[in-house]
């Protein structure tokens, strides 16, 4: 039997604009063995998330970029293979940040034990994890929808957006989702109970959105930016709230968006319509995690929140799947199965 090896995907080059497969490199290395206080993890599931695009650029942001030649960063569900750490034993399933690789050493920091009997471990990377938390906290803390108000969310069939729309409905608001393609729109309406769903890839989004929101928009949960923002912005009501969670349409941009500079118009409307536009990064909502996990677990159990996972098989397919995420090829929370659980 050959010795097991660690396979890992490193950042090979910094992309200019849209990333390419050649920006990643698959490497192999001997399997590390844990020293005193360390744990050897075998990665079972890797989460692919839009923020990883930002980590590929060497620019100032809220987190350090991945260095050239370093393992791509990412959240994982992993199995403890060997442990010289008092908190975990072999066989434990943990949430970790092991990145795009088959195995990793950990000193135990940030490991969260998961109980597969309580919830499928994959949900710790999606609806019960970071994307679910930003949906919950961004909507409750920033969006603050009231019953009867209209909430619009973009990237609505994805990990964050699908939770936002369903929570908005639970709070008594109307949920209008914007997603790419008829299949995703049908899923939003027929399976998740959105009041309306609009395809941003079809013509006339602004007109169709105005029809779907006859009383205007009270909350716009922004996941996308770009042309979708242009369609939603004129519909914002006085005192509308805009939680700015993500701007995925802009992550690969190398030049300003086409057309006139919108900033003076936006600022004028912020003033005259008393708009609240507020960005956030997930970690600021950490104090809300216990309430989020309690509420979300009960909504899932009662069927009020449903979720969808898009699972790609094999670590070597992670780069291709990640490029697809930036173009809307995923349908639901994107995960890579690296090894069996
Ligand atoms: P996701 O929605 O599961 O996947 C990304 C989706 O974005 C794609 O499936 C695609 O859906 C849509 N998209 C890509 N390019 C687009 C474009 N040019 N125009 C319109 N839509 C486009 O991803 P997610 O994890 O739930 O993340 C959604 C957003 O939340 C991202 O912007 C992400 O950066 C942000 N986020 C922020 C935080 C935070 O802490 N602030 C945390 C997590 C996520 P369609 O096929 O529908 O176009």
Structure overview:
The relative contact order is 0.16. The protein contains nine helices and 15 strands. The radius of gyration is 21 Å and the shape is globular. It starts with a strand and ends with a strand. Helix 2 packs across helix 3, helix 2 (130-143) packs across helix 8 and helix 5 (205-212) crosses helix 6 (226-232). It folds into two domains: 5-126 and 307-337, Quinone Oxidoreductase, Chain A, domain 1 (Alpha-Beta Complex); 130-286 and 293-299, Rossmann fold (3-Layer(aba) Sandwich), CATH 3.40.50.720. The chain has helices at 51-55, 130-143, 159-170, 182-191, 205-212, 226-232, 263-272, 289-301, 318-325; strands spanning 5-11, 24-30, 39-47, 76-83, 93-96, 103-106, 112-114, 150-154, 174-179, 196-199, 217-221, 236-244, 276-279, 309-313, 333-337. Strands 3, 4, 5, 6, 7, 14 and 15 form a seven-stranded mixed β-sheet that branches. A six-stranded parallel β-sheet has the order 10-9-8-11-12-13, sandwiched between helices. Helix 9 links the parallel strand 14 and strand 15 (333-337). The chain is of the alpha/beta class. The chain binds NADP nicotinamide-adenine-dinucleotide phosphate. NADP nicotinamide-adenine-dinucleotide phosphate (NAP) is lined by residues 49-51, 131, 134, 155, 157-161, 179-180, 184, 200, 223-224, 226, 228, 245-246, 248-249, 280-282, 325-326, 328, 330, 334.
